[in-house]
Every structure is written in C-alpha cells, then in structure tokens.
Amino acid sequence: MKVLAIIPARGGSKRVIDKNTKLLNGKPLISYTINAAKASELLFDIIISTDSNQIANVAQKHGGKVPFLRPKEFAADSSGDRDYLIHALTWYQNELNVKIDAVCILRPTSPFRTAELIDKGIELLENSSCDSIRSMSIVSGVHHPYWMYKEENSFAKEIIDGISIEQYFQSQLLPDVYRLNGCVDIIKSDCLLNLEKNLYGTNIKILETPKKQDLDIDTPEDFEYCEWLMTK
User: Does domain 3-136+179-231 have CATH number 1.20.58.220?
Assistant: First the structure.
C-alpha cells in the first residue's frame, strides 16, 4: 500500500503567531512532525502543503519536501481539509505518475507523535476494510460526555438525551468513549476523491493514542505546557 503523508502547514495562524515555525525547545514546531514522518517505515513519501514561503523555507531546512505552494483559495480560514488534500494528492499523482492508495494527515501541532504510531495506523488500514483511520484518545472522568450538561431554557440538562447522570455516579461505570486528537488521520484515496462521501467515509477505525503522544497545540498555553514537558 502506497501511503502519502501530507503535512498541512497553513500560514497566518492567529492564536499562536507563526505557530508552525515557532521554536519549541529550540526547534521549529514543524520539524518534530517532519522527523517523525521520516522515521516511519511504512510511509511511501512525505510532502508539506503550505501557502507560506517562510514555512516552506523552514521545512526544507529541516529535511521536508515542499514541491509546490498551496493555492490561496485552499488556504483561507474557510477552506476545508478536503480542498488541500485533493490538491496535494492530484498534484502528486499527476506530476510523478504514481498511484497513491491513501493519504496520511500529519498536523504539525502534535509534536509528541511517533513514527511507531504512524506505522500502527497504516497497518490498521491495510488489515481492515475501513475507509479511514482516525487517532483518538480515551475520555474518562469529568471529561466524559455522560457527566456533562448543556443549558436549555436557562436550566442545566444532560447533554445526551436519555442518560441519567445518577446511573453513572462512579467513573468505573462509564462506557469507553473516544475523542479526536488530530495526531494521525489516514484516508483511502478512493474515499477522499469521492465527493458524495463524507471526508472520512462511513467506516472509521479508531487508532487509540497513548496519553503522552496526544497533546495538540492550539493556544499559547498549550505551547508553554508542551515546552515545559520537553524540558522535564
């Protein structure tokens, strides 16, 4: 199976300025993802999709391939993942005359991701009939949806209809549920290119992610916490 890794690194981040190239423990954030991808034994190739010359230059200095600059219409705040993924996949297959079986999205905001997790996801895809693989973290305790409320008519109401929180008064009684963490997502090319399907298809396999790898940098506080962890 030929799996193309696409590292999406759009410029113009607002909550963390220049997030993808910001130094984390002395190295640009994007370099951690490049290094993990290059250490994979199962990825066929790795490219960076960016609209920024600055990000492209930094990525190339750290061993990343930037064969094109992403068109601006696929790099707007309103642009969906499918836009840049189809652009990158189509470009790659047309330019290199190579049939790619699946694309692996490796977001630069997961610096603790390992090559082993990437390869585990590829193996899971190869050995199942699913449309895609999505990395997820198990949710427990106070973060479990069974213990959450929403506001309705100014009163608190269980967020999931038909669930009584009193029935789940101990965390051990809660069923296993998972949240997306954006660490490793792999989509079969046929599913990605089929615009009548959801981006990830209907049959999605869970790639459970170890807690120490699932940190996603989205805010300045996340960045500081991540750097603190690395220094420890």
Answer: no
